[in-house]
Structures are given as structure tokens and as C-alpha cells.
Amino acid sequence: MRLTLRTLLAWRDRVLLEEDQRELDQKVASAEAAQKLEERIHEVLGRHELPAPRVDGKGLVASGNSVAEYLDNALDADLLATFEANCVESDVQLCEVAECHHLLAGMTGDPQVAAELDEIRCQQLGEAIRRRLEQLAGETGHATDVANARSIRAQLDASEQAAAVTAGSSSAGDGPPRRSRGPVVIAVAAVLLLGLLLGLLGLQLARTDERRPPGQQQPVAAAAAGPEGPAAAAEPRRQAPAEAVVLDADAEGDRVANGAETPAAADAVKMPQAPPPPAVIAKADTPPPEPMAEPEPQQVAETPVPPPGMPSAAASSLADRPQVPQGTAMAIAAGPPLAAKPAQTAGNPAPPAAAEPAATPPDELPVLGFLEDDAIVGSGFVLHRPPGLSGEPLDGWECLAADSPLAEQEEVLVPPGLSPSFDIGGVRVRMRPLTHAILRFDSLGMPRVELLEGSLIARSSNEAAELGISAGGLSGIVLSGLPGGVAIAVTRVPATDRAARQATQTHLASLLPLEQQVGWRQTQAGGLPPRRLLRGIEAETTLKPLTLLEWAATSPLQAAVRPLNEPPVWASPLRRVPSLEEEASEALVAAVTADASLLKALIEMSVGGRIENRMAAVETLALTGRYDELIELLRESPATGLRLGQWEQFEARTVPPALADRTLGLAIERAFHDHIAADRAATVIGLARRNLPAATPGDLTARLIDLLEADELILRRYAYAWLKERFELDASDLIRYRADWPPEQRLEAAEWWRKQVARGLLTPRPEAAAPAG
User: In this structure, is residue 653 part of a structural domain?
Assistant: First the structure.
């Protein structure tokens, strides 16, 4: 079976025959391009801020009919490559195709969806449609709009048919063109000239090898530098048209579960290929290429052999790769990739191509670790998700210990209490706890940090260092000012506990120069020039120190710039934590790095020992979307679990962030149902979300007071925490009730609350004036 974009989607949604599924398992595991595309599909499906395509879009790439035809394998073979190329270039289109395929795959497996309607239901459906059409026709202006749309569609169809007839008649009347010998002569001369140039190139390489001292490595091109320096490297390279290469010659076609066959020509996915990306995120500090005796089109660099014990050097950076040309399809390689020569710009000789970067000494490898001068626990780890492990425990998350080399693209998640530093292309990136980010090279070879949640600070001792940043709708390149530091954050607003619990928050991305002015240029997330500039800021601008650049999801097409008097908390590095949390962080690092199984180490730490250690392990599990241990700890009695103050702080730190995300919110609600009795789980979820149904504020207060006497401890704790949020209470009021008191004392305390409410002695807080939900 061919490995194409469509078959990759079918493989992800598991709608293939078992035989084909196993075959694609092997092909995806051996194809780096397929793994990267699968990761990108997973990423775009989780980006809720992506807009949906317009329902009235026209043309191949904008019309919803094109997506339907593509998924039905009914798209013209001539249009297939263009459509797939647009899916690769556009996150919106890729998300639309992948999400539609996922929904259809789920519906296909539902027997009720696939069942045919009986005659009575068909008549009922037809009658409902007719009534709806009559209702729409009676609305003001609707009938006119429909008539105009149909008229325009008819005119367009007539124009296309007339053009097709004219083109056919003109081509039929024309005689065969006269062939000229000129092209043949030019082709022969070009072949002879190419042979002469190749001979000169081989002679030059032989002389260069003779002149090089023993043990000296051949210089290679810098990752993102061109003959004109950083300014030229920042611009996208113009790519010469290349011959498409079929990477998977299997002619059997696509065999899906329903037995449909796909023509081989329609499913061949083609593109010019390039060497694989580097194995570590770094720009090798190598000397410039030696000058050549006479200009040559291209010089092939030797591949240095790494010393024993070092990771093998990989291919050149992504900056040297050809971009996907307009009109070709995305390549999903099933075998080793094929190299493609980059185009040479007229007037500027191309630098020597680097098939692989020079081997870097072990002490200069980019590593993950803590800075020695301001470390929190001295050593640590982060969670990372290698490609191809999405089906493993913790959704593919693994432990990445300090001093580990980074892969070409790393998705990292920082555990609580830790603040790691990363070296990415010569730029030191320090993250605060609970930060989620992706480190990689973009399409221009620029080191780039894609911040999904949390905050970080980027610095470099090199004045000329540059760094790509993607944070929410802010996407660009820091052109200068990295020695002074740049802080970036992606937070949720409004930053209130109530908004998080009720999933009414939106994302806010911020960028803040700290000590020097910063040059900023807008780009796409992949480093290419933007399709549309954000309003409120120039395409390239200078930001003064403590001048905040902000983007909000509520206004996705604009940005704002405003000065600050002092940096916010997220713009300061985390240098120390309370002693108990520091000891818990040290215990967490020791447990995780000593056990080969991350899941086993975290679960064992979450069920025994000091409560602070258990909290650190449970919060780390919750970061990955596993909430079973969290619910059990919230249900546990204070004798062995969390005390009252600990419980409220820990619950506010773990549950609201999960409820704020729609996907994670469903996961934690499922965990509540799994660990709490069915008749109480819905009530606990309503308490956690602060949206219990009630007709009036008084009814809600009465129900919360009744829950103070509930048998389940977690119900009493949630009810009391919500009551304290709803009313202004002094110190004497706060000692009237505790959720862990015996039943008699709880009954007496509940009666006190009822009397205080009946007498009007409790002052409601402003935000509690109306019942939630």
C-alpha cells in the first residue's frame, strides 16, 4: 500500500484492513517525513484557535467540496498534488481534512449511523426539509439571495463549458507544430558543458584533499547563514523547479476497510526530497568554506566520522532543504530520502553543500540541564514526547534527564518545582515550571521555540544571535537584543479561578524585552514571510526594554504594544522555592531518573511517603492528562492525605487548569465518574466547575449548606470551598466548620450557616450575586 496523506489519515484513524494497518505501521516507523507529518496533524487538531475554512469558499483549496471529494477519493488526479500541497502548507486546511476524516471514521464504526432509514423516517425527513425551505423562502431577502446565487452559478457553468468547447475546437483545428533543431543542439551542448564542469569539480576536490593537513575536518556551511550573512539567511530561499520523485512504487493502491481501490496515479505523493534534519538542535560554529580556485556550481562536502561514544552527526539544517514547490504534493517517504540540489542565485556562487554537520566535541554539544549558578535542585529532568510513541502510557511522554542531547524537534513539559535551561542553536532558553513548549528548527533553519503554555526567558551572549518565536498568534524572529534577555509567556485570561473552572478563558501571548531593545520581525510559524501582518505593529520593528507586545485570542488579527513599569512575575527566573517543595522536587528527580519506567516511578511515589512528595508526583501525572491518582488524593482523608489548607491550594493548582481545556476537561470528568459513585459524580463535577443548577442565589446557597453534611468528604470540601468564595467571612466565621469533623459537629456547623443566611448576616461577594450555570 502506498504511503500517502490519505492513507496516513486512514492509518491514524485505524480504518484500514488489519493487513494494511500492519504494513503502514512499518512504513511510518521507517519514514521520518511521515512521522513529522503525523506529529503536525496531532498538533493542529489540538489547536482550538485555528479558524475553520469558510463555508462559502470557492476554488480547489477553499471549497468544502474539495475536501469531500478528496476524502471520498473522487478528486481529479490532476488536482490531487495541488490539493495535498495546500494541506501541507496550511495548518487550517490540514486540520480540516484530518478532523473531517476522524469524524467520518468514527461515524463509519457506529452501526446506527450506517443503518439505512426506513420509509417512514425518510418521509419525515423529507417533510422537515420542505418545511424548512418554505420557512427560509419567506424570510426577507433570502429568496433573492438564493436566486442570485443560482444565477451566478449558472453563468459560471455556462462560461466554463463555452471555454472548454472553444479550447477543444481550436486544438483540433491546429496542425502539428513544426519541430526545431535548436533545442536539440542546446541540450547536447548543455550535457557536454556539464561533463566538463564535473571533471573540473573532481580535480578541485582532489587538490583540496591533498592540501588539507592530516586530521583537519572539511569546513561545512553554517546552519542558516548564506553568503550575505544573517540578513540573507532570514529570507526564504528561492527554489528551482525540481523533478518529482515517486518514493513509494507500490502499485496496489489504497485498500480500505470497505474494499475500495484507488488508482496508483491518484495516490502517488511526490516532492523533491532533502537530507534528514540534524540529530541535535544546534548551529555548529565552523570556519567558512575554503576559497576555490575557480568558481564552481557546487562543492560536495565530506562527511566527518564522529569519534567513538558520540552521537552520530545527521544531515544539514532545515535551512538547506528545498521548500515544497507550489503545485506538488507532500512527500511521505517509505525508504531513505533522496537528496536534492539547492538552487543557486544568479550573481552569488552557492556555498558548499553540507551533507552532514561537522562532529561537535562532547563538551560543546547542546544539552538539557540547569545553570550551575542559579540551579534549584542541581539536576533534573523534563517530560518529552518522542515521535511514534503516541500509543504508549502517558500518551507517549517519557523522561528526558539533564545533560541529554536534544533531537531535531523536542516537545517538552516541565514538571512542578523545576526550571530547566536548554541550549538551542546557541541561545539559552530557561523555562519556568509547568511550561509546555516545542524546540525545533523552522523551515529557514532558524532555531525556534513554539510556546504552548507557560513562560520562558531566552538569552544569548552572541550579539548577532537570532531566535524564532511562536506563541499564540505572535510569530516572528528576534533579530537582535538577545544578550539583554527576552521573556515570552502564553497565559489564560481572565486569570480567575472561576473562569478557568467554567472554561471561559482565552489565550494571551506576551513578549517582553528585559534589558536591551529588541528587533522583531513578523513571520509565519514556520519562518516564512507572513500571509497577513498583525495590525497594530509593523512588519519589522524595534521594542524598547519593558515594552510589552501582546496578542489575545479574542482579537486574533491584531497586536498591541504598551510600556510597563516593572516586569511581571513570569518574566523573572525562578531561583528558589519553599524548602518543602524543593525537597519534593529533589525526591521527584531521584525517583524518575532511577527507574526506567516513568509511569511506574510516578505512581509509586504518588501512593506513599511524605505528602509533599505525593503531591509532586500526582501533579506531574496530571500534567500529562492522567487524573486517576489526582482524584484519589482529593478523596483521601486528612489522616493520610491532604489537610484542609493543603487540599484547597492543591485542588486550585491542578483541577482548574484541566477544566479550562476542553479536551483535558473531558478527561478529568471521566476520572471523577470512574472513582466516585454514579449518583454523586455529577454533583462533584458541578461543584468543581462552580455551576450547580439553581434557580436563585438563595437556592444555591441552601444546597451548598446541605452538602456540608454529606457522607462523602470530597463533597463537603468542595461545598465549603465554594461557600467561602461566595461570602465575605472574618476569622471567627472560618473556624465554625471543618469538613473532617465528626457528624454531630458538622450538623451543628451547618445549622449555624443556615441561621446566618436567614438573618442576612453574611455579605455576598460581588461575583456571587447570581447562581452559576
Answer: yes
Domain assignment present for 205: no
CB 388 within 8 A of CB 362: no
Taking the C-alpha atoms of residue 360 and residue 370, their distance in angstroms, rounded to an integer, is 21
pLDDT given for residue 165 in this prediction = 58
Q: Cβ distance 455 to 435 under 8 Å?
A: yes
Q: Is 455 helix (H, G, I), strand (E, B) or coil?
A: strand
Do 637 and 525 share a structural domain?
A: no
Claim to verify: residue 428 and residue 545 sit in the same structural domain:
yes
- Specify the range with the lowest mean pLDDT, choosing from 180-184, 198-202, 356-360, 600-604: 356-360
In a domain, 137, yes or no: no
CA-nearest of 590, 578, 705 to 646 is 578
449 in Cβ contact with 469 (< 8 Å): yes
Q: Which residues contact 718 (CB under 8 A, 6 or more apart)?
A: 684, 687, 688, 707
Q: Which of 184-188, 220-224, 582-586 has the highest mean pLDDT?
A: 582-586
Instruction: Kindly state the DSSP code that residue 109 receives in the 8-state scheme.
Output: T
User: What mean pLDDT is predicted for residues 374-387?
Assistant: 67
Indicate whether this model's pTM tops 0.85.
no
Please give the residue range of the domain that contains residue 650: 627-768
Lookup: cell for 209? 584533499
Residues 638, 562: one domain?
A: no
Cα angle 285-291-294, degrees, rounded to a multiple of 5: 150
757's grid cell? 443566611
Give every CB contact of residue 633 below 8 A, 6+ residues apart in sequence: 606, 614, 615, 618, 641, 642, 650
Predicted confidence (pLDDT) at residue 178 exceeds the cutoff of 50: no
Question: Domains in the chain: how many in total?
Answer: 3
Contact between residue 30 and residue 334 where contact means Cβ atoms under 8 Å apart: yes
What's the pLDDT at 21? 82
DSSP string, 206-226: HHHHHHSPTTPPPP---SS-B
Q: Position of cell 500534567?
A: 623
Residues 50, 41 contacting (CB under 8 angstroms): no
What CATH number does the domain containing 554 carry? 2.60.120.1440
The burial of 767, by beta-carbon neighbours within 10 Å (0-12 exposed, 13-18 middle, 19 or more buried), is given as: exposed
At a CB cut-off of 8 Å and minimum separation 6, what does 724 contact?
734
344 phi, psi to nearest 5 deg:
-105, 125
Residue 145 lies in a domain: no
Same domain flag for 638 and 758: yes
Q: Which of 61-65, 271-275, 548-552, 580-584 has the highest mean pLDDT?
A: 548-552
What average pLDDT does the segment 685-712 reach?
94
Q: Which grid cell sits at 366?
A: 547542546
pLDDT of residue 347: 36
User: How far is 622 from 261, CA to CA, in rounded Å?
Assistant: 44
Contact 708, 746 (CB under 8 A): yes
Q: How far is residue 425's CA from residue 527's CA, in Å, rounded to a whole number?
A: 15
